[in-house]
Amino acid sequence: MKKSEVVKQYVEKFPEHGNRTLASLVLKENPNLFTSIDSARSSVRYVRGNQGKHNRSFRQKKSELFKPNGKAGEYKIPKSLTPKKRIVRIPEGKTLLLSDIHLPYHDIEALECALDHGHDADNVILNGDTVDFYAVSRWDTDPNHRDLAGELQAARQFLMHLRERFPKANIFFKIGNHEERWEKFLWRKAPELCGVPDFKMEKLLRFEDLDIQEIGGRQLTKAGALWILHGHEFFNTFDPVNFARTLQLKTGVCTIAGHKHKSSQHSVKSMNGDTIACWSMGCLCDLEPDYMPVNQWNLGFAEVVHKGKKFDVNNYRIIDGEAHR
User: Fold this and answer.
1) Contacts of 215 by beta carbon, 8 Å cutoff, 6+ apart
2) How is 37-75 classified by DSSP, letter by letter?
3) How many degrees, rounded to 5, is the angle at CA 271 between CA 266 and CA 276?
4) Residue 151: what pLDDT?
5) Sheet with 88-89, edge to edge strand ranges
6) Fewest C-beta in 10 Å: which of 49, 93, 130, 213?
7) Listed residue (102, 155, 123) closest to 291, CA to CA
């Protein structure tokens, strides 16, 4: 391979490196190609179009690798690694919000009630913790209950059922803290598999086949002027009143979330006369799990109807298999 071809690979890989810095790296990793740092730097300058007027003119016109000479001693602000976060905007209409199903530890009767009640929904949001991922939890787990293949199969079966039940609806799958267990498991146990498409959630649960859109765990969602969270987006929360009150204090805007497995509602009025209302939803899972058989949880779901910025929230509790507001 020619010197220029080798250098081109480095220039493409490290476009922000200075000529001398890049030359040092090229020389270190290719000592048989270059006799000194000056010869390596000369090749870098040639590839970038920094070697004479003719070469600069040619590279500027013909190559995307062209990098203009900077002033001596000049340093640029480095590129930020912060990714741009895209807000998911739910289409107008009726939206069925289902949170904390925790497959395969779901409550079938409650889930049927929620699906029946929202049968005519235009959008369905699985708002986090749809799958429990018990088998890859970092907490102590009963080895007799660890069955990752079974959990995934239950999740796929439910998603196929959901698509059959709502053939024309937009279906969204929010990554909750329990789905994040899978990614963190890979980080700890098999980092080599991170980034491999076949091990991503969308492949494991076949979102593309079922036309389901994934919402990232830290990605924000809006239905009109209403913000929709799972609830784990905050580092930690203490709820001296209820979770809806905490949402109002943390966000300062109209928000609905799950995560705490308990229905609540809180509203305040600003000095401008604006009303800020927040809701937390009940869950659709086992109310007496072994790790916390005594709790204040309740079964529930929510429906949101919105057009433009206006919205209406119905936060339901499920009691004896029936939905109550």
Assistant:
1) 88, 125, 172, 173, 174, 175, 221
2) HHHHHHHHHHHHT-SSHHHHHHHHHH-TT--PPPPTT--
3) 25
4) 94
5) 88-89, 221-223, 226-228, 255-257, 275-280, 264-269
6) 213
7) 102
The sign of the dihedral angle between the CA atoms of 236, 239, 242, 244 is negative
Helix 37-48 and helix 3-13, axial crossing angle in degrees, nearest 10 = 70
CA 178 to chain centre: 12
User: 171 and 212 in contact (C-beta within 8 Å)?
Assistant: yes
Sheet containing 123-126, strands listed edge to edge, beginning at the edge strand earlier in sequence: 212-215, 170-174, 123-126, 93-98, 300-307, 310-319, 322-324
* Mean pLDDT for the stretch of residues 275-300: 95
**What CATH number does the domain located at 88-324 have?**
3.60.21.50
User: How do residues 160-169 score in pLDDT, each as one tens digit?
Assistant: 999 999 999 9
pLDDT in tens, 55-105: 444 444 445 555 655 555 566 778 888 888 899 999 999 999 999 999 999
Using CA atoms, how far apart are residues 14 and 25, in angstroms rounded to an integer? 10
Closest CA to 246 of 261, 231, 224, 227: 231
Is-contact 242 248, C-beta < 8 A?
no
Give dist(CA 142, CA 301) in Å, integer: 29
Containing 319, the helix (H) or strand (E) segment is: strand 310-319
What is the pLDDT at residue 15?
Answer: 82
Residues 6 or more apart from 137 whose CB is under 8 A from it?
Answer: 181
With contact defined as beta carbons under 8 Å apart, do 157 and 151 qualify?
no
The C-alpha torsion from 149 through 154 and 158 to 164, rounded to 10°, is 70
Give 155 or 291, the one with higher predicted confidence. 155
CA distance 269 to 267: 7
Q: Each residue of 195-230: pLDDT tens digit?
A: 898 999 999 999 999 999 999 999 999 999 999 999
**What is residue 143's DSSP assignment?**
G
